[in-house]
Amino acid sequence: MLEDIRPVLRAIGVTIVPESAELDEPEWLALEGIVRGALEPRPRALQRQFILLVRAIDWLALLRYGRRFTALDPDRRHRFLERLQNAPLLLVRRGIWGLRTLLLMGYYGRPAGGRAIGYRADPRGWKARA
Amino acid sequence: MNTPAHYDVVIIGSGAGGGTVAQALVPLAQAGKRILVLERGPRFRDQEFTGRELEMAPLLYADSGGFLSADGTMTLAFARCYGGSTVVYTGTSLTAPERVIRRWAVPGLDHGDLVARSRRYLGENNVHLLPTDELNDNNRLFALGARKAAYAVEQFPVNVKGCLGSSLCNLGCPNQAKQGTNRVQLPAAERGGVEVVTRAEVLRIDPDRSLAVRVAPAADRAIGLPSEWAPGEYRVEARVVVCAAGTLGTNPLLLRSPLPLPASAGRGFTCHPALILVAVHSQPITNDVGHPKSYFVDRGAEEGFVLETCMYFPFTTAKALAGFGPPHSEVMRAYPRQQQILVLSADRADPENRITVDQNGGPVVHYRFTPDVVARLVRGNKAAARIFFAAGATHVHAPFADPPLIEARDAGLVDALIDARHWKPGKQSITSAHLMGGCAMGGSAAHSVTDAWGRVHGLPWLRVADASLFPDALEINPYVTIMALADRVAEGVRRDVPQLLG
C-alpha cells in the first residue's frame, strides 16, 4: 500500500520530524510498518483517501512552486505543509492533521524514537531510577 | 446460533458502571438468581500489561484511543476490556460537586445520596492521598506554580494500592496497583456467583428482552484470555437488562435495537473537550516516573475549565503539540525537561451534540465546538501558561497561540498571545476521555431517557448504569459518580425484583 507513495511519504515525514532524515532503511521500514498497522484496521475508503492526500501534496506543490513536493528544499516543504495545515477547508486541515499524526506515531512510537528523546518510563517505576 | 441461554439479569459492560452493578447484585446471585455480565473486550493477564504505548493502545482502546468525532476534529478515548475504562484511567477519585447535581435538576436525585454512595466506594477502592514525598517534579511544579499564580490547587485522591510509580496508568497499570473494577468489584462479583463472559459483543436488544450476542474468538497467540464461552452467535434471554457499556457502547446499542425509546435518546452528549499544554524547564525534572496525575485546579464554577497535571507518552505528546518540523522537534527533544498540564473544558449539554449509529450500528459522535467551549479552553490555556511560567518554565507550548511556543520573557503577554482567533478545528489536537450523556436522567420521556434510578421510560425491565445517564457535564473526573449512580441502579433492580423477576 505505501510502496507506491514511499518517496513522497518520506519527504513529508522528514518535514514533520526532521530527525527522521537520519533513519536508515530498516528504521524507515519500521516507521512505515507502524503507519501501515494504524491504517489497516481503518475503512478502505479512508486508506484510499490517505494515499490520495499524499499524492495530492506532491502535485499541488507543482501549482505553487513549479516543482513537485519531493523536489522542494526543506524550507519550502515546511511552508507548503503549513499553508495546508491552515487551509480554509476543514477537509484539508483534517487530512494534514491525520497525516501528521500517523507520521508522528511512526517516528515516536518506535522504541528508538522514545529513547532518542530521553523517555524512560519503566513498569518498575521509582525502583528503576534507584 | 447456540441454544438460548436464560438469565434473570444481564449487565452489558464491566467498567465503573457494570462492575459496580455486578457486585451490588451478588445478594441476588446468592439467592439463586442468574446474573450475567457481558463484556465486549478481553480479560488480560497481569503480565500482559507491558506499558509500551503502541503495543497497549490497540489492545485496550477502541481505535487505539483515536476514535474520531464525525467531523474529525476531536479524538475520543474509551477502553474495551474486563474492567472497561477503569483499567486505563489514572484512578483520580472525586465526588460530584453539589452545584452540578443541583444544575442537573433530576427529580428524585439527591446530592447527599450520591455523596454517601460515593464514600462507600472511595473506601472500598482504597482511595487516599499519596504522600507528598512520592510525588514527582511534574506534579510538584504544578502545585508550586498554581500557588504562585494565585490559583487554589488541590491534591487528587487516587485509588491505588502498592503503586510503584510506573507513570503508565493510561496503558493499564503494569503492577495492578490501580483499584479499578477489574481489581475490586468484578472479582468480588465472580466470587459471589455472578458470571462474567468476555469478548462478548451485544449486537441488539429485542423488545422480548432477548439479546443477540456474538462471542469473538481469540486469534492465535492473541493477548488476553479466550472467552469463557465458545466463539459464535448466541441468543440470551433476560428478565432485566442493565446497559453499562459506557456512553459510546450503551447509546449505539440502544439506538440500533428495535426498542420504543424516548425521542431524546443519544442526545445531549458532553465530553469535557481537552488539550495538553507542554512547558520546558532549563533542567531535567522527574516526569515519566511517579503517579502522573496528583494535582488539579478546579475553575469549573468560575471560568468553565479544570486543569490537571498529566504526563503522556512520546507519541501522545507529539500528537498533542501543535505544528511540526524543527520547533516541534525542539520541544520533543526536551522531553526530560517537560512539564505537562491537561486543560479540560466544562462543556454544556446541547441537543445537537449527539450520538447516532452508522450503517453497521457503530457509534457516530456529532460534536460542535460552541464559542463558549472554545472560550473556556482559551481561558484554561492562559491559566496553564501562567502556572508554567510561575513554576519557572523557560518556554510554554500553547496550542491556542500562533506560533505556539511562548518564551519566558513574554510571560506577561500570555493574555494577548493565547487567543480564540488561533482556534482552527482540525488543526489543534482536541481529545476527550470523559464521555457522557445520551440517556439523560429526568422526570419524563418528553425530556429524558431514564428516571433517577436508570429505568428507561416506558421499559421498566431496561436500565442504564453508566455515564450515559448524565444529563449534563459533570465537570470533574466521572468514575466515582458513575459508581454511585450504578449503585442506585442496582438498588432499584433489587427493589423491583418481585415485579421483574417473580
Poorly predicted regions of chain B are none
Tertiary shape of chain B: globular
First-to-last CA distance of chain A:
46 Å
Class per helix and strand makeup of chain B: alpha+beta
Q: Quick one: biggest sheet of chain B? A: 8 strands, mixed
Q: Largest chain interface and its two residue counts?
A: A-B, 42 and 47 residues
Count, helices of chain A: 6
Oligomeric assembly: heterodimer
Shape of chain A: globular
Cα-based radius of gyration of chain A, to the nearest Å: 16 Å
Describe what this molecule looks like in 3D:
The complex is a heterodimer of chains A (130) and B (502). Chain A is mainly alpha-helical and 130 residues long. Chain A has helices spanning 6-16, 25-39, 44-65, 74-85, 90-108, 111-116. Chain A has six helices and no strands. In chain A, α2 (25-39) packs across α5. The mean pLDDT of chain B is 96. The longest helix of chain B has 20 residues, at 371-390. In chain B, strands 1, 2, 6, 7, 8, 9, 21 and 22 form an eight-stranded mixed β-sheet that branches. Helices cover 27% and strands 20% of the residues of chain B. In chain B, α1 (16-24) packs parallel to α14 (479-495) and α5 packs across α14.
Provide the descriptors you would attach to this structure in a database record.
heterodimer; A: 130 residues; globular; B: 502 residues; alpha+beta; eight-stranded mixed sheet; 27% helix; 20% strand
Quickly describe the structure.
The complex is a heterodimer of chains A (130) and B (502). With 130 residues, chain A is mainly alpha-helical. Chain A has helices spanning 6-16, 25-39, 44-65, 74-85, 90-108, 111-116.
